[in-house]
Amino acid sequence: MRRVHVVVQGAVQGVGYRYTMRMVAGEAGVAGWVRNRRDGTVEAEFEGTPEQIDDVLAWMAEGPPGARVTAATVTDAAATGERGFEVRPSA
């Protein structure tokens, strides 16, 4: 099991990034969360198999139509055994 923390920069708010990511995460079978940050970035943390994580990270690099991702910072985190995937309130 692998867990990652990701911060995505660019034109990623107001384009449906979080809600589309919730669908992508559900299809991939990962558990975790996503939220907007006040600095205009999107932050997510999720876990799954290495293959599931790679699939979601590949989508995050592009985002939904209308998004323009300029950078993504990925760091490893400790797996928690979390279940489900949620859109959290902005931080």
UniProtKB/TrEMBL annotation:
Catalytic activities: an acyl phosphate + H2O = a carboxylate + phosphate + H(+)
Highest taxon above the source species = Bacteria
Q: Which EC class, in a word?
A: hydrolase
Q: What's its EC?
A: 3.6.1.7
Report the PROSITE patterns cross-referenced here: ACYLPHOSPHATASE_2 (PS00151), ACYLPHOSPHATASE_3 (PS51160)
Q: Name one GO molecular function term.
A: acylphosphatase activity
What are the alphabetically sorted keywords of the record?
A: Hydrolase
The species this protein belongs to is Microbacterium ulmi
Active site per UniProt: 18, 36
The UniProt entry, under Pfam families, shows: Acylphosphatase
Q: Which family does it belong to?
A: Belongs to the acylphosphatase family.
Q: Where is the Acylphosphatase-like domain?
A: 3-89
Which protein, by its recorded name, is this? acylphosphatase
